[in-house]
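Recall the central idea of this unit: under ordinary conditions, the amino acid sequence of a chain determines the structure it adopts. In this exercise we apply that idea directly, starting from the sequence alone.
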Amino acid sequence: MSHIRKIQTRKRVALVAHDNKKEDLIDWAIYNKAVLSKHELIATGTTGRLLEQHLDTPVKKLFSGPLGGDQQIGAMIAEEKLDLLVFFWDPMEAQPHDSDVKALLRLAVAWNILIACNRTTADFILTSVLMKGEYLMDVPDYTGFLTRKLVQ
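Accordingly, the structure predicted from this sequence is:
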């Protein structure tokens, strides 16, 4: 049985980008500055510093992705402290922390939060009428998974 979580009008938005996608994310954020400034922004390492400079808006800065920032965001997802993940990752280049990236995306899907991995999806989410108010979301119940009997 799942439970309902209320996403507030002011969303908690994580912004993450691989090195080759940082410029794309910054351009997108500048274009959407008016909307983003209404939400709580969280970002990993360098991305957070760049966003804060370009948006002139406070950004909660976590560690760099490879140094644990991805895991910090994953923990926020699991603790229901994040509403939207905008992650511009580079599909054309292997990353030394690819397993972290996969784990982060898996958590976002498992906990049913919004994910945008490219500008088009991010634009659609950010301009959705649902971004302007509260939203009730269904959170999966993993009690059965946690209490499962392991085969020996």
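The chain has one domain: 3-146.
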